[in-house]
Amino acid sequence: MDVDDRFTVNIYRMELERVKFVMKSYLRIRLAKIERNLIYIIEKDRSELLSEAEKIFAFNILENRKKHF
Description:
The chain is mainly α. Helices cover 83% and strands 0% of the residues. The chain starts with a helix and ends with a helix.
C-alpha cells in the first residue's frame, strides 16, 4: 500500500466517523425533543409522526413518569 492509498483510506475513515457522529447527534436530539414534548405528543395524538421504537420510548417515559409522581 503506497502513501496515496493510505491517505485515501484515512479520508474514508474520517468521513465514516463524521457520518456516525452526525447520526448519533441527530438521534440524541430527536429523543430529547420527544421527551420534552411528551405531553403534546400523547394528548394531541401526534404519535403517528414517530417510528415504532420512538413510540415505545415515549410511552415508556410516560409510564415511568406516572410511577415516579
